Amino acid sequence: MNFLSPGFLFALLSVAIPVIIHLFNFRKFKKVYFSNVQLLKEVEQQNSSREKLKNLLILLSRILAIIFLVLAFAQPYIPLNKEKTTIRDNAVSIYIDNSYSMDAINKDGSLLDEAKRSAKELIKGFGLNDRFQLLTNDFEGKHQRLLNKEEFVKALDDVKISSANRTLQQILNRQNNILTGSANKYSFIISDFQKNISDQKKLDTKQDIQYSFLKLNATTLPNIAVDSVWTLSPNHQPLANERLVVQLKNYSDDDAKNIPLKLNINNQQKAIGSVNILAGKTVKDTLNFSGLAAGWQKGIITIKDFPITFDDSLLFSFKVDENFPVLNISGNSTQDYIKALFNADKYYKLTSSLENNINYNNFSNFGLIVLNGIKNPSTGLAQQIKTYVNGGGTVVIFPDLDADLQVYNAFLNTLTLPSIQSINTTSTKVDKIDLQNPVFKSVFEEVPKNLDLPVVNRYFSFIEKNSANKEDILQLPGGKLFFAKYGVGQGNVYLSASGLNKTDGNFARHPIFVPLMYRLSLNSGNEGDLYSTIGNENVLTGKNISIGKNQTLKLSANNFESIPDVRFAQGKTLIYTADQIKNPGFYNLTLNDSLLAVYSFNSNRSESDMHYLGKNALSNFAGKSNLKIYDTDKDAVKLISGRNQIGQTLWKLCLILSLIFIAAEILLIRFFNNPKKTI
Asked: What is this structure's pTM?
């Protein structure tokens, strides 16, 4: 075969040309193909970089979220100061307010339970060698020592609501007494800080103690309280009419309407009533009752008011005497009008004595002493009468106008009474009578237009030195004294300018004399307090009690008995209860199982005002750099053991940052998407 023939060449070309064309196209395709592959690789590399960035950002957000969440539980803090101190043991005093107001409920339960939880959290920041004092309103002796952590928690669990309350300064003083020595010293006050806790004065603190107030937040609640009670007569007769005044107070910001009021005496209902009280105001109501037998009476006033009930009742006690003892000391046994007057009424038990035969030892047993026409009052009598009056007794003096003026003036001066200037023998008549005086009040149903008043033939004129404690009952023309009342010590002295003899006038025989003396005696006497307040420095008073060598006085109530400290002064028995009385109730004073007296104790009404001091008000009372105030709802307190520093924790900030990074992770996953791949 001729390989160079045209046919062969044509055939060869016909075959070669397509092959050449195909090879050319293949090279071109290959070039395009590899170009596309290169472009794809570059796109994939870009997408891979974006994906790596996205994953790194998500990982970083997740790590930071976890870190800040862990820190939130670790409670980091910023110290309040950077001063470094030598690492020492710590002495910590924690006061838990356990007054009635701490029984209130907030979102976390009762305030007392919240205070206990706060105290337990506080001690976690201290070491094993640190010591703690638990202090409450009871100021018990067992709390006046330092405990370890375990002992402190056990004592804390035993704290209960108490009727006692204290001021801030009293609490700090108590803590200062135990926070001594070289240890780091901390004082914590955990309370709702009722307004009654402060006496409005700057607090006295020590520089080497770090003080912290932890304020618990309570809701201000409306409250109405039985504030006080008193009787309108110091003497009480069997079956006689009695009048008791009750004072109620509305501590809320709204008016109170139709508050039911009830009086029980010896478990028998004696009176009922209903009162309306304006917001923030007090109101008085007088209850009338009768039918009391002789002996000690246990009374209770109650109202119905919710949700605060500890002050809805008030206990009181008094004695109804079978008779009223009167001592008549006279200088002349004849014309004794006093004896005739008091012997006419069986209620009065009269003891008569001449001025030269006086028994001074039993003065305190008499409700009234009358000095009738004494000629020569001795200095001994003057001193005994002064002691009797200073102790709350009542004395009536009808002078002997023929006595030595110098001797009488010495006697009167001992009692801080006006001095006699001279004797007047010009007959006159009482010119003025004070019918509004308690002695005459309710004696006359209607005041006569032309009231006949006593005639006076002889009388003393006095030099008044001080009339501030004087009440004129009967006056002579020109405003001169005829019969007046003087307050002396805790008692009263009634002084007459004239005697009771016929030659002196007709005063003793005048119709006004009988009601004057009877009413005077009924308004005298020395009734003790109707009740005492728990937490105050109470000194109970009673009549002079003779105690034998092997005898002791006992003060007892339900599940309570104590032997009080007893002293004698001014013819009275003084009974000191100290801090033994913890609960409201009736307490019997006995001697060899014989009942001597009944005393009533009530909770302090200062706890009734459910208004609280704010953080700013507390800051004004503090005014010291070493005293910090924290709000338990807003602040968290962390203690640096071994350093005298207290800082505020940052757990809330850490929690917020953790939530922010969790949100950032979600946003990255959702919106940081890869672009679509192109070939």
From this structure: 0.72
